[in-house]
């Protein structure tokens, strides 16, 4: 009995010491720093640049049309409900304050047992809507940086006449008119312009149990350069090419918005704070009032029905 208890305590103790070592030095036990395996895609980097191409992009957008503003929504291949909701709500607003606005969805390849069927369904969906852009990397949360960079590549290749692009997540409310109003404002820059909810001193997270953990050997600095939060950011059309030029010099970490901040910094650029803190809202923690809805540009939502309800109310909302 005593022996058993002793063994138990001993095992717990060894376990605790191991955890502590791992916490203090997450590289402990790995085959050393900066081995070639560390350079390639792994837990902290994605495979970019890669030899990716577009296997679906027969949209007329930027080919036969010239929008003022293009909204690009990264989505999972299986996210048809989210896409349909956007097509019914803010994605349906095509002429706003006299400006042409279009919406596209960008995705990678489906994976898993039903990948083939998912791909066939995507093709059907695109036949109907012609608003999907698909590249041939494997879709997944960890590959969001690839998705963003492929979006920029597609924009540079096809859209040399539009004025602004916004990347916005599928679970967001977007007040298109307030966004267009901001972009038309004479005080809004037409070049080197990127805005959203800007994080100015975002710490590099060193807790290995955090989803955004980043070890010191990848990023030594305690803070990321400033970047707008990935949920919704807008940029002037000159920036995609500038970011792509910087990208080969910056290791492609999997945190896509922080990565864009690093690319901007490499070009000596910095994002612009939105003129009003009511414009970009993350996790408000309470339902948005009509007054908030009349002033918002983009806000996170918790469900499709909340998003739809907000969008309907935002149309006539006043403060
Ligand atoms: C990229 O893809 C093309 C066409 O599939 C192929 O010919 C080329 O060798 C590839 N390049 C690299 C670096 O993998
Ligand atoms: C990311 O995409 C690459 C290229 O297609 C693929 O090899 C890799 O498995 C993907 N990673 C994840 C986590 O899906």
Q: How would you characterize this protein structure?
A:
- The chain has helices at residues 2-24, 36-39, 80-88, 115-129, 144-158, 176-184, 239-246, 256-266, 290-295, 304-316, and strands at residues 54-56, 69-74, 95-96, 99-109, 132-138, 164-168, 172-174, 194-199, 227-236, 272-273, 280-281, 298-300.
- It has 319 residues and is of the alpha/beta class.
- The chain has a domain at 54-199 and 228-274: Spore Coat Polysaccharide Biosynthesis Protein SpsA, Chain A (Alpha-Beta Complex).
- Strands 1, 2, 3, 4, 5, 6, 8, 9 and 10 form a nine-stranded mixed beta sheet that branches.
- Helix 4 (115-129) links the parallel strand 4 (99-109) and strand 5 (132-138).
- Helix 5 crosses helix 7 (239-246) and helix 7 crosses helix 8.
- It is globular.
- Bound molecules: 2-acetamido-2-deoxy-beta-D-glucopyranose (2 copies).
Could you name the key traits of this structure?
19% strand; 3-stranded mixed sheet; globular; alpha/beta; 9-stranded mixed sheet; 319 residues; 10 helices; Spore Coat Polysaccharide Biosynthesis Protein SpsA, Chain A; binds 2-acetamido-2-deoxy-beta-D-glucopyranose
């Amino acid at each position: 009995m005593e022996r058993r208890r002793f063994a138990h305590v001993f095992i717990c103790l060894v376990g605790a010491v191991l955890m502590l070592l791992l916490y203090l030095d997450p590289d402990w036990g790995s085959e050393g720093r900066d081995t070639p395996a560390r350079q390639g895609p792994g837990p902290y980097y994605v495979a970019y640049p890669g030899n990716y191409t577009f296997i679906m992009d027969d949209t007329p957008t930027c080919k036969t049309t010239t929008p003022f503003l293009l909204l690009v929504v990264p989505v999972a291949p299986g996210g048809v409900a989210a896409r349909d909701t956007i097509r019914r709500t803010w994605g349906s607003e095509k002429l706003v304050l006299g400006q042409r606005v279009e919406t596209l969805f960008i995705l990678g390849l489906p994976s898993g047992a039903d990948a083939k069927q998912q791909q066939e369904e995507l093709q059907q969906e695109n036949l109907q809507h012609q608003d999907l852009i698909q590249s041939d990397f494997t879709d997944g949360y960890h590959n969001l940086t690839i998705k963003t960079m492929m979006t920029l590549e597609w924009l540079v290749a096809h859209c040399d006449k539009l004025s602004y692009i916004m990347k916005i997540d599928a679970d967001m409310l977007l007040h298109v008119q307030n966004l267009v109003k901001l972009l038309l404002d004479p005080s809004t820059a037409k070049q080197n312009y990127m805005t959203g909810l800007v994080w100015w001193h975002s710490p590099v997270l060193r807790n290995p149990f955090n989803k955004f953990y980043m070890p010191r050997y990848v990023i030594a600095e305690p803070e990321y350069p400033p970047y707008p939060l990935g949920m919704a950011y807008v940029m002037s059309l000159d920036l995609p090419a500038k970011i792509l030029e910087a990208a080969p010099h910056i290791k492609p970490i999997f945190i896509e918005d922080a990565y864009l901040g690093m690319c901007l910094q490499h070009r000596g650029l910095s994002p612009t704070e939105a003129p009003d803190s009511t414009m970009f809202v993350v996790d408000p923690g309470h339902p948005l009032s009509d007054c908030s809805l009349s002033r918002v540009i983009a806000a996170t939502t918790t469900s499709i029905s909340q998003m739809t309800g907000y969008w309907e109310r935002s149309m006539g909302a006043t403060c």
